[in-house]
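@channel sequence for tomorrow's demo:
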Amino acid sequence: MLEQHRARLRQERDIERRAIDGGTIQWLVDRELGAEHLMAYRLAVDPDSATGHVHAGAEEALYVVEGDGEVRVEHIAHSVGMGQAVFVPDSDTHSYVNTGATPLVVVGAMAPLIEVNDIHPAMPPLDLRGVRRTALEEAGVMTPTMIDERLIKPTLMGERSFRVLVGPQVGCLRMTLFTGIIPTGRAPLHAHPHEEIVYILAGHGRLWIEDDQVGQLRRGSVVFVPVGVRHTLENIGADDMKVLGAFSPAGSPEAKLTTSG
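structure tokens (generated this afternoon):
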């Protein structure tokens, strides 16, 4: 782990995997890392397995990185695959069911911060037939709590672009979850009025904090940036870099702090 001006860079492979019923979980960013507004995790559910939990006091937004399965929020089941996101309202029981032959991997964020001990197991029912799906989802239409990034029009920000998946537009009031595309090159340094977590989905590059290059970025890298810290992600590859980001308070990825003086 590298540290510079309270920003953090971690590699997923170096983060402890904790065994849970049905798979493993890694806490990518939490209070111990210096976060004040949100936390992030990586969950891997084994084939033919399921796991679930419930927590009061925090909203949750998750993104499917690998595999296929179902995410159930209360009594609604969402069939999910790579590139789909789900919003879980505060205190709703939710579970993850792997219906495929390979691990179902999701990366998610929760806001505001809560204690890990306040997250309680909540296993899904064994009889899958008792869970209903919305008619809109079966028709391939985006539902209020399941979002397919392919249905979201990208917002251009110079040569870069982003898609807001979860935020106030779907009822999530405490944070925003988005995916972004970074072409080859380095954007100017900037700072945000929110705390931000970035997970590298594809590509490789460098993280810059102020004028310092603080580490290499690759698939599975995790970047934590506190409010007001100037930073930029540089893509040093020939292909686009794809990132998953979450920040709190909720807003727009375009929001930046102006330099005073």
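heads up for whoever presents: The helical segments are 135-138.
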